[in-house]
């Protein structure tokens, strides 16, 4: 029997990050001492007060459907968070809780994009964005950037890419994969262009709280009512609360868009897991005290990784003040990213993600969400590898 796969699915590129993870896991299972720089999640446990709230919800029998867009108390808590931390006021009806920030992004594409639309995505990009755009029938338009500009797009670059078909601009600061944090002035300038041209912005702010060295995160929605009216903020619990497996994210959108997303969700996943949502309410009910220790640790690892990378011949690395990634340039080694990562894994048992997965073949992504011990060991091996080339 021949199975016809839909064009929609057949056009998808499978996730390279997952392939690397699988290969590293295979080696580990075979007893090989693999150092993993591939991970996209914090290596800290979910704080106990959040786990306890979910356990409590289970014990109380909160195991049934909730409203598709999320528990009213959680939508209210998210709206309160945006007002308190970001200075942006939303009615709880504008908040949709979904099964992870990734799901929130997907819902946005489904709600606002269609055939003939163009979506502007700065590269290096989070690898799911272009695939989601294609799933919605729209066309990704990639804006190239490099380490010379800390991977930032300029307002002129954005303006030049906008056509009458441009529907959406995707902004992700702090960024995965580069760790780049745009300054408030830079964010405002990009927002100004979108407001002027009538282009929507999907602002993925999931790394908002993971910034170092005095860098400041500012939401594009916070600059004026016009900015807010052009913006959909995507966020979630995965990173700052280390809840990747809980599958819980949220977004804030103009009312008609929120309503459309709620309808889409009511016919696809329905509500995100009921007791996970109680964990989410607990998470937002507390100040981010648990984060201080994590940030101190990430900050040390970031400094160490950066310093070690910069001392390796053939590698250069620009500063990046956010998330838990660095995105070194490997073009001085003469290898492209897939070759570099394949050989690094085979010859030195170090897993890293090739930049080509993020639209940037001269770079690799290193995650420092791993112990200092592993970081030192992994960088020793990368150094040995580069010397051998
Ligand atoms: C991790 C991540 C998300 C959301 O992940 P979920 O696990 O689905 O909540 C969204 N955007 C970026 C850029 C990420 O790195």
Task: Give a nutshell description of this structure.
This protein is of the alpha/beta class. It has helices at residues 7-10, 16-29, 48-59, 72-86, 101-112, 128-135, 155-161, 184-197, 225-229, 255-266, 274-285, 289-310, 337-348, 372-388, and strands at residues 35-36, 95-98, 118-123, 139-144, 166-172, 200-204, 231-236, 249-252, 325-326, 350-351, 353-354, 364-367.
Molecular shape: globular
| Biggest sheet overview | 7 strands, mixed
User: How many DSSP-defined strands?
Assistant: 12
Task: Enumerate the distinct ligands.
Answer: pyridoxal-5'-phosphate
Structural category: alpha/beta
Q: What fraction strand?
A: 5-15%
- Sketch the topology as an H/E string, one letter per element: HHEHHEHEHEHEHEHEEHHHEHEEEH
Fill in the CATH topology of the largest domain. Aspartate Aminotransferase, domain 2
Spatial sequence of strands, sheet with the most strands: 2-8-7-6-5-3-4
Q: Poorly predicted ranges (pLDDT <50, ≥5 residues)?
A: none
